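We examine the record.
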Amino acid sequence: MSRLSHREWKWIHPWLMDLVFVLHWKYNKDEIKILSGYRTPQTNVQLEGAALNSQHVRAMALDIHIPDVDNEAVARDFKTFIYGGTGMYPGRGFTHFDFGPLRSWVGS
């Protein structure tokens, strides 16, 4: 394993940023925190609960937090305008969305 393996990077899919813009517009928020985007396979396997076949490894997913906005509402909104995965993590205060297969879940 290379010493720099955790410093690899990839461009995230541009549609992800389009979705962040839509959320900015819808909720009129100047702050949207991107908690996770691209992850190396090495980083991904070290994260508790991360899917082995995560869309983060493909640079096709984001985990976000919008201050003072309910995660359930954000997840519901994602489902109306994306085809992909939507995960809500109320215990951790973030919402996941990706451009993988159509599915949704609630994590802890």
Notes: The CA atoms of residues 39 and 57 lie 5 Å apart. Residues 14-27 form the longest helix (14 residues). The longest strand covers residues 61-65.
